[in-house]
Amino acid sequence: MYNAKILSAAAVLAAGVFASTGAHAGMVTDAHGNVGYDNAAECDAAVQNGNAKFYQSFTTKPALRRAGETQVKVTRLADLGGNYRLGACDAGAAHQFGRDGVSKALQGKYVPYSPNMAVNVYANATGQPVRVSMKQCDNNFSGPIPRPVAIPQPVATSPVVIVPPAPVIAPVVAKTLSPYVFGTVGALRDKVGGALLHDRDTEVAGQLGAGLQFNKLVGAELFYQYAKRHDFTDGLAAADVRNKTFGGRVTLGGLVADKTRLFAKLGAASVKHTSTGYSDRKTRLTAGAGLAYSLTNNLALRADYDHYFKRGANWKAADYLGLGLQYNF
After folding, report:
1. 15: number of Cβ within 10 Å
2. What span, in angstroms and rounded, lies between the C-alpha atoms of 254 and 104?
3. CATH number (domain holding residue 296)
4. Three-state DSSP state, 22
5. Which pLDDT belongs to residue 21?
6. pLDDT above 90: residue 314
7. Does a structural domain hold residue 10?
């Protein structure tokens, strides 16, 4: 009998230890002290039990309207409707549309937001609200509106019909296309290998271009490249040659850090060599790599490497390396 009582007490104690420790087994904390949970139920339970540490913004940024948004006003999260009276537990978002979401450690986790948190409410030309963001930093939620904390329902003694409150904001389709322009300055190494002339020369060059990012991974660019005249000589002959290049390429890559995007490039370019009494144009395959580091929401430092493959008997491969800026609209 005593052994049974001891085993029963031990089971109750073990259950209590599990309840006090296991409830936060799925919680993570970022470098700023903000927390996130593996699933919405854990986040809701922490808010309902009064144990949640609500998210605190650590940057300050002004409101930034997107296409179709003409008005913005500031209110509390709780003022969005009765279903927000406990706040929100929303999946952490990544950087998009010129604004951040949450730190990388919390992206995809469910983050608790206080009902007293100030938010920006964006509306269209008719005054219809279409999107909500965090007021202090203008950071994004996972969708047009954050997910509200589930409201605990009292145990009913008789069947009742519960009608969920209608959302105050209609979902909108998020814009995915992101245009940008860029310019870099660097060096072009060109090589000639014809019947009379075999040489290579490196001169100052630059690229200007425009691109369109279709989603987080895939984009496309058009570019123009211009270089100072290359001086070729090998003792048998000499030439002063201009290299002008125009091309298009597909980019493929993504974020490797919070502010750093690495991408590969593959495309084709029309490469024209001209000199006194001489002109040669060939379409060549081109491949390369690039890196963009965000300085602000719109401006990034950009580095490019491009390789132009050999085509024809006279002109061999060429390589461009440049550094400059990219502006994202």
Report:
1. 11
2. 14
3. 2.40.160.20
4. helix
5. 40
6. no
7. no
Run of H or E residues at 322 = strand 318-328
Contacts of 15 (CB under 8 A, 6+ apart): none
For residues 65 and 183, state if they share a domain: no
Handedness of CA 207, 210, 215, 216 (dihedral sign): positive
pLDDT tens readout for residues 289-308: 999 999 998 999 999 999 99
Rounded to a whole number of angstroms, the CA Rg of the chain reads 29
Tokens of 214: 């279709």
- Rounded CA gap, 45 and 43, in Å? 5
Count of other CB atoms within 10 angstroms of residue 28? 15
* Region of residue 68 (phi > 0: left; psi between -120 and 50: alpha; otherwise: beta): left
Q: What is the DSSP string of 217-272?
A: SEEEEEEEEEEPPEEEE-SS-EEEEEEEEEEEEEEEEEESSSSEEEEEEEEEEEEE
| CB neighbours of residue 278 within 10 Å | 10
